[in-house]
Structures are given as structure tokens and as C-alpha cells.
């Protein structure tokens, strides 16, 4: 089927906001029989809805024709059910919304990706025009206005002016927390620094520590302290208290003069120099290595590189851990709608002008993936209800964005997301070595999250397929999402649960989950047991800094404070 011109798509609409929906509409017009069947289903909904409207209008009991999804909090207030007027508005909106989304997902004559993209942008438009987003169509906003004698709307206008000045719909006040005082407070010292990262060594809290130190490679698209939010949520503090020598990377916030820094540089000067510094500091042959999100993708690349560069028996890593990490990008979740040649070219043109991708652009894209909860929720509560922003540490971290160098990020988008070359044998050459994940033989502990829309767990599971068949793998599925599935401290009674087990080389993810036992609590406890099982001895706790590696700054360091 001939679609809209490539020139329009590439230059006027690189992300397919309008062209994808127009293509879907054209496809339906070219398939009249399917169109009739779809409209017949919609007509059935409308007939049932009309009967519902009549019963509510006469004060008769009636069950909603369309129920909001379980995670849709927009219509949670009882007024949307108890008041016939507002119930009817809600039902009409939901009826058209659900049916139109189903139609776009089922568009004939389009590829799966084209259908998903069209349905995605349609859903963003439908979310934007929801009655809850408009003052006169939101009964809760009207009630608050009356009860506060107009103060709620006055507060909402002040909130709007605040956000206009910030040029963003804020989720938390910009001064709600201070890094190093409220967040990232676990004591430690920066013991290594180069142009790309600082390494923080945390002060031991036990007399004895495990002989093999742990280095955590954090994502460079966010700041490291998601793993050290506060003492109750800090993975870093938990590990230190469990007797581990913990080191973590804090990446520099790149500036325009760093535009030419490459993916190779991030591997050599980032991960490799960090591994060597930790080994040298602790005087050990091998370390535990962990990576979170794209930090985990880099760790995966490094492990393949090290097995080729040093040989399997001389790799300076005893075992490795991945937190919500993609290595197979064939189905990367909702972000797939932003990944094609036109979209990446548009981003490259923008990055070429500035020398980097601004963190706010990346944050906006991720917020768009969950627009109801991360955009319109704050629109309604800030502007229509006039509420103050709650001081939520995770949201503060989420808005504390970082930039990414042009050359490195362009490579990452193309070679990982667009071309999916990491899983292809020797397709990538990184830091002088061809990359093949099948060369990795070291034991792996891989953690995923059940509701992760950034790194879907069933896609993360595919790492088992691409490793050496003899490489031991323990795979874990945690409840919750990309952040809270990882920032998951022990609490009593347990709030979350996890599945853990050893997948077989060719075992399907559903089969693995069926035979794995669900356990209440946090996977942190399972992980520390796994790390201890690696067999190293307890030694006297190391000093936080040494003469060779003196303290360059107190934790959380200097790079994390760069704006």
C-alpha cells in the first residue's frame, strides 16, 4: 500500500505523530469489509450505551457498559459513578476511546510497528482530550472551586505560572531536596576521577567485609543516586551493612565540548578504568560487577569485550549482575514508537547543533510513554485542583536529568535500538574487539521488573539465549516497574514479591515463570545470598581511601551536582 510521502514523514513529522494516524485511517478506507465489521462492533457499544443513558436519566439502576482499566485513576472519584450526568460523560468518552484504540491496534494492511505507533499517538491524543483535563468537565475541580471559594483555581494559576517559568509541568518542586543533604547521604569518598566518571567508595559499617568488592555501573542518562535515595531506600547502604565493599560510578554531565566522545570511550575510560581502579584499590584479581539499565547494556558489552580481550580465564570480573537491562532490542517496549530512521536522524540533527542530547528531551519522551500518570495527573492536580506538589524523592531524581554526548548517543541509538547489533555475533567492534555475547562464561544474576515499560522483562529474559550455554544464569522477576522493582528494600510486612530460578538455555520465559516459585519480599536478599555463594572469604574492612587513592571529595562527589 502506498503511504504518505517519505519527505513528509522524515522532515515534517519524524516521529510519526500525524502521519501514522493518517496512514491507519487510509488503511481502513482501503479495507471496507474490515471497516464495516469494526463499525458494527462500535454500533453495538453505542446501542448498549444509549440504553444505559436512558436508565440513568430516569433514575434506574444500571451497570456501566465500559469499565475504566484497573490502573486508570482519572475516574476514581465516586462522583463519576454516582452522578448520572458525570457517569454518562465518562461512559461516552470510554466507549469511543476503547473502541478506537482497538481499531488502530487491528488496522489491516499495516505492519505491527506501524499499528503500534498509530495506536500510541491516538492514545496520547485521547488522553489529552479526556474530560478530566478540563475545568468545566471535571466535577472534582468544580467542587474544589466552590468549597474553597475560588482559591483552588487561584492556586492553580500560580502553579501554572511556576511551571511556565520552569518550562515544564513539574512533578516535584525544584528545591524540594538537596543532593548530599536529603538524598545520596550514605558516607563515602570519591577515590577516582577521570573526564567521564567519578568512583565512590562507601565507608564500611562492618568490621569484616567480603573479599570480593562490588562495582555498580549506573546509567548515564540519570544520576546515580537512585540507588542511594535515603537510608530506608538505599541499596548502597543495604549492601554496605551486609558486609560488601561497595563502589559506584557517578557519570559526568557532558557539555558541548564533549560531543565527540564515543561509545568506545565510555567502555574504555568508563567501565574498564573503573574495574581496574577497584581491583587495584582492593588488591584483588576479580570483582563483582553490576549494571543498571543502559549501564547494564554497557556491562554486557564490556563482558563480551573482556572475554575476547583477556581470554575467559583472565577476565577481571568474577560474576556480573544486570538490573532491568536490554541486550536484545528487537522489542524494546513502548519506546519503540520513537525508533526508526527518520526519528533517529531528527535527533542526530538536533544533537549535532548542540553537541549533546539534553536530558529534558529524554525525560519528556519517557513521560510521554505514561502520559496519564506522568503528565495529565500533574496538569489536573496542579492547575485544576490547585494542589501543592508532594516532596517525592523518586520524582525529584527523575527530573534531575543529565545530557548525553552526540557521538556516543547516536551510536547507541543506531547500533542497539535501530540495528539490534549487540546480539549479532561479531557485528559490533568496540574498543578494538569484535563483540559476541556468547563468549561470556562468567555467572550472571539478571533482575527484571514485571511492570517495566522501558525494559520489558520478557525481552530482558532473552539474555539467556545469547550467552554461552555453560554460563550459569540466575534470573529474577520482581513485581513493580523499572524503578520501584529495583529500589525495593526489605520491609515488614513485605510489599512486593519476586520469582527466581535458573532458566534453561532454550526455555521460554512463560515456562520459566511457571516452574519458578513466587516468594514474598525483596530480591535484594536473594541477590546477596547469591553473591556470598561465590565463595570468597571475609577480610578486615578496607579504609575508605588510601594514599594511592586519596579522597578527592566526600560522597556524593562533584559530578552529580553538575547541572
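Sequence proposed for the structure above (563 residues):
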Amino acid at each position: 500500500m502506498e503511504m504518505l510521502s517519505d519527505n513528509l514523514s522524515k522532515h515534517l513529522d519524524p516521529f510519526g505523530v500525524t502521519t501514522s494516524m493518517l496512514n491507519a485511517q487510509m488503511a481502513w478506507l482501503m479495507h471496507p469489509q474490515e471497516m464495516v465489521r469494526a463499525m458494527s462492533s462500535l454500533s453495538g457499544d453505542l446501542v448498549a450505551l444509549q440504553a444505559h443513558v436512558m436508565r440513568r436519566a430516569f433514575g434506574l439502576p444500571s451497570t456501566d457498559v465500559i469499565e475504566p482499566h484497573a490502573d486508570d485513576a482519572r475516574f476514581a472519584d465516586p462522583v463519576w459513578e454516582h452522578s448520572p450526568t458525570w457517569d454518562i460523560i465518562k461512559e461516552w468518552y470510554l466507549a469511543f476511546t476503547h473502541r478506537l484504540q482497538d481499531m488502530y491496534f487491528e488496522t489491516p494492511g499495516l505492519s505491527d510497528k506501524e499499528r503500534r505507533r498509530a495506536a500510541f499517538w491516538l492514545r496520547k491524543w485521547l488522553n489529552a482530550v479526556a474530560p478530566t483535563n478540563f475545568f468545566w468537565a471535571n466535577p472534582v475541580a468544580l467542587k474544589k472551586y466552590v468549597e474553597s471559594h475560588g482559591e483552588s483555581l487561584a492556586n492553580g494559576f500560580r502553579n501554572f505560572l511556576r511551571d511556565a517559568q520552569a518550562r515544564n509541568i513539574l512533578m516535584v518542586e525544584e528545591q524540594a531536596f538537596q543532593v548530599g543533604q536529603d538524598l545520596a547521604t550514605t558516607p563515602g569518598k570519591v577515590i577516582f576521577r577521570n573526564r567521564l566518571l567519578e568512583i565512590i567508595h562507601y565507608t564500611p559499617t562492618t568490621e569484616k567485609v567480603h573479599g570480593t568488592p562490588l562495582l555498580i555501573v549506573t546509567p548515564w542518562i540519570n544520576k546515580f543516586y537512585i540507588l542511594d535515595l535515603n537510608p530506608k531506600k538505599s541499596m548502597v547502604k543495604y549492601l554496605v551493612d551486609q558486609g560488601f565493599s561497595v563502589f559506584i560510578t557517578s557519570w559526568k554531565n557532558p557539555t558541548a565540548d564533549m560531543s565527540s566522545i564515543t561509545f568506545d570511550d565510555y567502555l574504555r575510560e568508563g567501565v574498564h578504568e573503573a574495574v581496574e581502579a577497584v581491583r587495584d584499590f582492593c588488591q584483588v584479581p576479580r570483582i563483582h560487577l553490576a549494571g543498571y539499565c543502559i549501564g547494564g547494556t554497557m556491562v554486557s558489552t564490556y563482558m563480551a569485550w573482556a572475554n575476547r580481550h583477556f581470554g575467559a580465564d583472565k577476565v577481571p570480573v568474577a560474576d556480573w549482575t544486570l538490573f532491568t537491562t536490554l541486550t536484545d532490542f528487537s522489542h524494546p517496549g513502548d519506546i519503540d514508537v520513537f525508533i526508526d530512521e527518520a526519528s533517529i536522524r531528527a535527533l542526530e540533527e538536533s544533537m549535532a547543533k548542540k553537541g549533546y542530547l539534553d536530558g529534558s528531551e529524554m525525560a519528556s519522551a519517557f513521560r510521554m510513554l505514561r502520559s496519564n500518570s506522568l503528565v495529565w495527573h500533574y496538569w489536573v492536580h496542579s492547575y485544576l485542583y490547585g494542589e501543592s506538589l508532594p516532596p517525592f524523592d523518586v520524582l525529584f531524581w527523575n527530573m534531575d536529568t543529565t545530557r548525553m554526548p552526540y557521538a556516543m548517543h547516536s551510536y547507541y541509538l543506531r547500533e542497539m535500538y535501530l540495528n539490534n547489533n549487540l546480539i549479532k555475533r561479531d557485528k559490533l567492534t568496540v574498543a578494538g574487539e569484535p563483540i559476541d555475547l556468547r563468549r561470556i562464561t562468567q555467572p550472571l544474576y539478571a533482575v527484571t521488573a514485571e511492570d517495566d515499560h522501558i525494559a520489558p522483562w520478557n525481552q530482558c529474559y532473552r539474555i539467556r539465549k545469547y550467552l554461552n550455554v555453560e554460563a550459569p544464569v540466575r534470573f529474577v522477576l520482581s513485581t513493580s516497574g523499572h524503578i520501584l522493582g529495583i529500589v525495593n528494600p526489605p520491609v515488614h510486612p513485605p510489599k512486593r514479591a519476586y520469582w527466581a530460578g535458573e532458566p534453561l538455555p532454550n526455555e521460554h520465559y512463560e515456562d520459566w515463570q511457571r516452574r519458578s516459585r513466587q516468594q514474598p519480599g525483596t530480591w535484594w536478599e536473594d541477590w546477596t545470598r547469591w553473591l556470598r555463594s561465590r565463595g570468597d572469604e571475609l577480610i578486615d574492612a578496607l579504609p575508605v581511601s588510601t594514599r594511592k587513592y586519596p579522597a578527592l571529595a566526600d560522597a556524593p562527589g562533584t559530578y552529580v551536582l553538575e547541572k
